[in-house]
Amino acid sequence: MNNSYLGKLDYNDPLYEVLFSQLNLPVKEPLFHVKRMSSRRVYKYIEEKTNIAVIGKFFNLNDNKEEKVRRIKGEFDNLKKLRNLGFDVYPLYVVKPFGKEERIGLALTEEFVYGKDLDYYIKKAIYKGKGSSLKKRLSRLADFLYALHKKTQDSRRVNIEPVSLYFQRILDKLCRHRIIDDLKSYIRLMDKWLSRNNIQMAKSSIVHGDATPTNFIFTEGGNIVAIDLERMKDCDPVYDIGMVCGELKHAFMWRKGRPDEVEPYIRHFLKEYAKHFKDEKEAFKEITYRNPFYMGLTELRIARNEYLNWDYRRWLAREAMECLRWGLMFR
After folding, report:
1. Of 111, 133, 167, which closes a domain?
2. Of 67, 120, 150, 259, which has the fewest CB atoms closer than 10 Å, so is most exposed?
3. Environment class of residue 47 by beta-carbon count within 10 Å: exposed (0-12), middle (13-18) or buried (19+)?
4. Cα separation of 260 and 102, whole Å?
5. Residues 203, 304 within the same domain
6. CB within 8 A of 90, min separation 6: which ones?
7. What would the pLDDT profile of 232-261 be if each residue is shown by its tens digit?
């Protein structure tokens, strides 16, 4: 995260009037300090007198990638939808959107919530031995994801076609980057998974869609706040679960070179999610049957990142294949 200071927002900038009207601040002439939050078009605006902060997310008005622009623009409605379902109060909370102004490329303004993200607690567990602290946050994350999936559960079965297309797009990119060599082997594994009864019969629900460690904030009061909902969609609930597990394994391998040390945390997370079901043991079995597919998909997804070492990206791809193969041994 860059978090670099860019200066003060000019009074003549059209965004100034947008923020002034949306935030209803208790000052006549607010002064906003601007920070860039990431390599994407995400900025933080901090009002000098009140210290109230807001996040602004922008899209490129000239971007010809319609799907990408539509996804970014859709986050405002996604946040409103989940908050209307009850995620507007703590302890399970979705960040509050203020508004948007597409004529200037502003897809969303939302509140800035102070706290530590899940990645902070992962690093504490890896480097400081604070494993109990990480488990506590994973329990809260499991609570949030179960509530999200349960409240939005659909009677319809999961549409596996978008999952297949997404999987293949990832593989295509990994081929171009020479991260994988045997495309056909991955495709065969994907086809086997998507033809399995327990995947095809899974009931759809709304999933976060980007359940990475930086997208969940934990406040001092023990609340969880979900952010970055632009990839929210209808899918198998285990899509989110597998992503969390895949991200955990990546974090332990990337930072410590010991992916085996993550297993107690993954198991804890899965059990904390499963405990909400009437038949906890059966739910745990059902989740763990489907989890290797989405966990492998996540490892491949992470392997696309060019900031990672090339050899490490190759390791992720091999680990994904082993995960996919191993999971097919059951049921």
Report:
1. 111
2. 67
3. buried
4. 46
5. yes
6. 219, 221, 223
7. 999 999 999 999 999 999 999 999 898 899
With H, G, I as helix, E, B as strand and everything else as coil, classify residue 235: strand
* Cβ within 8 Å of residue 261, ≥6 positions away: 252
Q: Exposed/middle/buried for 265, CB within 10 Å: 0-12, 13-18, 19+?
A: buried
Q: What is the CA radius of gyration of the chain?
A: 21
Q: Quick count: other Cβ atoms within 10 Å of Cβ 231?
A: 16
Q: What does the pLDDT look like over 67-124, one tens digit per residue?
A: 878 888 899 999 999 999 999 999 999 999 999 999 999 999 999 999 999 999 999 9
Given a contact cutoff of 8 angstroms between Cβ atoms, the answer to whether 277 and 287 are in contact is: no
Interatomic CA distance for residues 101 and 115, integer angstroms = 27
For position 71, which CATH number holds?
3.30.200
Residue keyed to tokens 């974090």: 251
Q: What is the pTM of this model?
A: 0.95
List, as one string, the DSSP characters of 36-78.
Answer: E-SSSSEEEEEETTT--EEEEEE--TT---HHHHHHHHHHHHH
The pair of structure tokens assigned to 317 is: 């791809």
Q: Which domain holds residue 96?
A: 4-111
Instruction: Report whether 98 contacts 22 (CB < 8 A).
Output: yes
Residue type, 308: L
Strands 233-235 and 205-207: antiparallel
Bridge partner residues of 99 (DSSP):
109
